Amino acid sequence: MSSPIENAIEYAQAHRDSFLEGYQELLSIPSISTDPTYKAELERCADWIVAEMTRIGLKNSRKMPTTGHPVIYGEWLEAGGDKPTVVIYAHYDVQPVDPLNLWETPPFEPSVRDGKLYARGSADNKSGIWGNLKTLESILATEGRLPVNVKVFFEGEEETGSPSAAPFVVAHKDLLAADALMMSDSGFDPDHPMIGYTARGIISAEVTVRGPDHDLHSGGYGGVVHNPLHTVGKIIASFHDDRGRIQIPGYYDEVRELDEEERAQLLETYKITGPEFEAKSGVEHFWGESIAPVPVRATSLPTLDVNGISGGYQGPGMKTVIPSEASFKVTMRLVPNQDPAKIAELFKNYVESFASDTMQVSVAIHEKAWPVTMAGDGPSLEAVQRGYEDMIGRRALRVRVGGSIPILGMFQREMGMPITPLGYGSGENVHSPNEYVRLDHFFLSIEKSIRTFYYLAETMG
Q1: Regions of the chain with pLDDT less than 70
Q2: Cα-based torsion angle of the residue sequence 171, 175, 179, 182 in order, rounded to the nearest 10 degrees
Q3: Would you state the pLDDT for residue 105?
Q4: For the domain bounded by 201-255+301-369, which CATH number is listed?
Q5: DSSP string spanning 90-132?
Q6: CATH superfamily of 4-199+371-460
């Protein structure tokens, strides 16, 4: 007689074609959260997901308003009081598609080529949305019940720092109360199995420098009127010393040194992950290695990066002007113990100190998110590792992650529950043209997650 796990896996295998068809429909919705012109598309995407949640059997599925894009909530709480309750987190918003001309096929017209599904959001993070829903569908369709109590929490602002989702969590603590959060903004690669146990915090900011009240002829006013672009260059050049260490006073005050055991583990893991990491970088030499080895610098130290600069003439040929205004965008990645509010204030004060009687300098802080340390052991992580063992015969490596998932640090601080990654599929070109997910890995991740939900009932019950 087949087991519930086997029955659900057989269902998932038998319905791969319909799973793929639905996934492509979801990916065709341009839910770009950073661009306000797509607001209606995010609402449409949320409605589409709610309808799918209701169809597969989740209860009380609904779109809940925030001050920004809606949160999606649904639940299945009939496993019983002796079974654990888990929150499933993923996000349905996606990054912009620029530069559009580099896409081989349109970003919102999903295309399968060589076993890869190309579309914006295919890896980040509609794989987390769709993978979870198809996992739950496979179990509900074959058993009529889930092995654990489930609360689904999908947001639409992760790519903009979760500004509205964060206060939503604070206002709905009772609704989201659970024993663990399963975080599905991560991947599943059976060839290189890894589970992140940290994510850095993030601050995003925009600096604006203003000089004359209009553009001036550089022949008439060059050397006489202070050029905003020159001040932008001066500010940016001051951020790091020649070794790559950030020069803002106090920036490193709260950074915790890695203990020898964790440092050794990072270096050992990098022997496995390093070659691919280096190959994907597209550079021959890394920067800042005199400060710390690459795996330490890439995951365990804070950063400050300029993401874009604007000002003056950007068209073909030349236009001889002194621009009236210039600006640049910055992101800072934070590590455990760093307070994003404090670091944002240090950055703002430092940059605005470059103002003078010839130049106005202002700083707008956008997102601020805490770093997070996820479950290092415990029953929820054990359930995930058992899923890996069943599927690929070995456990996943635990690794530090250099990126950020803005809501998680706040969620952990407010809710106090363990957070465990539950990833779906692996791919490339996240945030870039030609984003894709490998379909074989995606379907395997559903089978792995079916096992994981049953193991959650055992390990946390």
Answers
A1: 1
A2: -80
A3: 98
A4: 3.30.70.360
A5: EE--B----SGGG-SS-TTS-EEETTEEESTTTTTTHHHHHHH
A6: Zn peptidases (3.40.630.10)
